[in-house]
Design a protein that fits this description.
The protein is of the alpha/beta class. A hairpin with a 4-residue loop joins strand 1 and strand 2. It has 8 helices and 12 strands. The protein has a 5-stranded mixed β-sheet, with helices on one face. Strands 10-7-11 form a 3-stranded antiparallel β-sheet.
């Protein structure tokens, strides 16, 4: 099926302008060219898109659906062109669960103050690359190594491991817990993006696990007391939930916070982001 943007623009112009003649003027082509383009589009799809009479042109039911799709596609193409030609005036930073914890607000405010020419957006994408591989962001904040060699990354800071549990859990009465305290419990983990695996425990003392793929579901289940969780401290700062408390894991290894980007196409602001995040984590 041979469909291109020319077909979509032609169809939308006819519907918006109301006649083939006016569509030709809007597109700066001949009326014959409009007729040929529409006929080519209808042949490619194998359906009639417009009803034509001597008085008016109206979309068929199928035509209405195609016009709606065409408007969306053309809008996305316009966004793509603006993004590609804007000199990277927009910076999207992806994260999977928690952004930068207690540093999130400070990062946003300092960036806005020091780099007003670059619009900063934080984007939550629950994938292994936090949206980097999917094209949803320009940089990504990660808390587990990214093995894909298309990406480069650097550690910008460290975060403590915390245990999340129901507020009435016996462990909640303690100021902190140890890894061994969790061995007999059921851990709720996200295998795609999470930092907790049973490999953190000795083979003979590993906890049972259940799987989740979303932080809200994770918190909901933990609040019931059926499972506990282990997470970077950034989660506790970003997601406070009634019925859930967080306690430091005294002997848990710190979690490295990484900034990642495309190796062959780094965003121009990458170095500035790296320096600011490193500074914020160093300041504590």
């Amino acid at each position: 099926m041979d469909v291109d943007l020319r077909h979509l623009r032609c169809l939308v112009a006819i519907v918006d302008e109301g006649t083939f003649t006016d569509a030709a003027v809007a597109l700066d082509v001949s009326q014959a060219a409009v007729s040929r383009t529409l006929a080519s589009f209808e042949r490619a799809l194998g359906v009639r898109l417009l009803r034509r009479t001597s008085r008016e042109v109206t979309p068929t039911p199928t035509g209405l659906r195609v016009v709606a799709h065409a408007r969306r596609v053309l809008g996305e193409v316009d966004d793509l062109v603006r993004d590609a030609t804007s000199g990277h005036a927009r910076l999207r930073i992806g994260y999977s669960w928690a952004a930068l914890g207690r540093h999130t607000l400070a990062f946003q405010r300092r960036w806005s103050r020091e780099r007003p020419e670059t619009d900063l957006q934080l984007v939550r994408v629950n994938s292994a690359s936090a949206g980097l591989a999917e094209g949803s962001c320009d940089l990504a904040v990660l808390r587990r190594p990214l093995e894909d060699r298309r990406f480069e990354s650097v550690v910008v800071g460290l975060e403590r491991r915390l245990c999340a549990m129901a507020a009435d859990d016996p462990l909640a009465r303690r100021r902190s817990v140890r890894m061994a305290d969790l061995a007999g419990r059921t851990l709720l983990v996200d295998r795609r993006t999470g930092t907790t695996t049973v490999d953190l425990w000795p083979p003979e003392a590993r906890p049972a696990t259940e799987e989740t793929h979303d932080v809200d579901d994770w918190l909901t289940v933990i609040a019931t007391g059926r499972c506990i969780g282990m997470t970077p401290e950034s989660t506790a700062h970003q997601y406070r939930r009634p019925g859930v408390v967080y306690r430091p894991v005294r002997d848990g290894e710190p979690i490295a916070v990484r900034l990642a980007w495309w190796r062959d196409d780094p965003h121009p602001a990458t170095q500035a982001v790296m320096e600011l995040l490193t500074s914020l984590y160093r300041e504590g």
